[in-house]
Amino acid sequence: MKQTLKSLLPIAVLLALWQAAASAKIWSEYVLPSPERVLRAFTTMAQSGVLFENIWVSFCRVLTGFSIAFALAFLLGLLAGLRPNSSVYYNHIVEFLRNVPPLSLIALLILWFGIGETSKIIIIVLASFFPMFLNIKKGLASCDPKLIEVGRSLNFTQGQIFRRILLPNALPDILVGMRVGMGYSWRAIIGAEMIAAAGGLGYMILDAQQMSRSDKVIVGIFVIGIVGYLCDRLFSLAIKKALHGGVDNSWS
Predict the structure, then answer these.
(1) b/e string for 146-182 if b means 16 or more Cβ within 10 A?
(2) What CATH number was assigned to the domain covering residues 34-242?
(3) 162-188: per-residue pLDDT in tens?
(4) Rg of the chain over CA atoms, in angstroms?
(5) Would you list the domain boundaries of the chain?
(6) Dist. CA 220–CA 186, nearest whole Å
(7) I need a surface site. Which of 2, 73, 105, 196 has the fewest CB within 10 A?
């Protein structure tokens, strides 16, 4: 109970400061709408179904891109973790792409693929691939060689060594990479939707900004944070389960 109160205290303080600033009219309603006005906008959008439609559109895009990115990251991470010498063929390309912000490619992707779903999915894949790849690679490569020797002494096949030794050892790192990758996915898709989309949370925020509805903009920001937080908590619980209790907030 005390822990819950402590976690709610900063939120209550921020809401109180927000309400005080809005009541004092330090800024206009256009710049800083009151919490009450934002709540009314949220209620209206939720009741009309527009809010949940946009959440669903963004969630489907994130899930699709994230799944593709995980499949690619797992395959390349498997190669990098089990065959380190092969990195000479792809390491420079991976490092180059890792340092290029995905949103900087939007203009080219729109020229190549249009403003449909493909360009947005590619943005998500590029954003979430690298943290998952690096963690999968680390998890597989950091397995204690003595454990592998024990497996060989028990006449394990390569497949059995992977399933019974390497994969369980790498699982915490894989889950942490997925947790980070999911956060990157939400950041990337919102940016992509704000530039070229006909639906989604990013589109909703941009449309509200063009209509001078700062209350709806704030609703969109809060919804993104809440949905992202819930996704993160799911991965946090998965990590905790994989670590059999482990450290709840471990990112290492």
Answers:
(1) eebeebeeeebeeeebbeebbeebbebbbbbbbbbbb
(2) 1.10.3720.10
(3) 878 888 888 888 888 888 898 888 888
(4) 22
(5) 34-242
(6) 13
(7) 2
